[in-house]
Amino acid sequence: MAEPPRCGVSGVQADLPPLFTRTVDGRPVDFVQPADTEQPVWYAYEAGQPLGAVHADVLDGATAWVVEMTSARHEDLEEAVRALRRSDPAGPGRNR
Fold first, then answer.
1. What is the DSSP string of the chain?
2. CA dihedral over 57, 6, 12, 23, signed as positive or negative
3. pTM higher than 0.85, yes or no?
4. Measuring CA to CA, how many Å separate 46 from each of 31, 58, 84?
5. Which residues are CB-contacts of 92 (< 8 A; sequence separation ≥ 6)?
6. Nearest 10 degrees: CA dihedral of 90, 94, 95, 96?
7. Per the CB 3.0–4.6 Å rule, which of 9, 12, 15, 92 could disulfide with 56?
């Protein structure tokens, strides 16, 4: 899958398709938006294993990525994925 365009300050929903892959730290992460929602939320999977959900949020004109489990805000999607990896109970060094 090709890399989707980077999210800008507005139009997050329009910029990202419901299914896309982003490479984070050299590893592909698949993002899936549930078909039954129009909200800007995607579930992240790495090597077929779920990492968690993130959603895009625009506050004061800036887009942030929020990790659903912790409500932690991140400036970009890559940082949100790293936070999801850190919150993984199996730890960052597990075999995938």
1. -PPPPPP-SS-HHHHS-SEEEEEETTEEEEEE--TT--SSEEEEEETTEEEEEEEEEEETTEEEEEETTT--EESSHHHHHHHHHHT-TT-TT---
2. negative
3. no
4. 9, 26, 10
5. 85, 86
6. 60
7. 12
Token representation of residue 53: 């959900």
The CATH number that domain 12-86 falls under is 3.30.1880
With bands split at pLDDT 50, 70 and 90, how would you rate the model's confidence at 74? Answer: very high
The domain spans of the chain are 12-86
CA distance linking residue 89 with residue 19, whole number of Å: 25
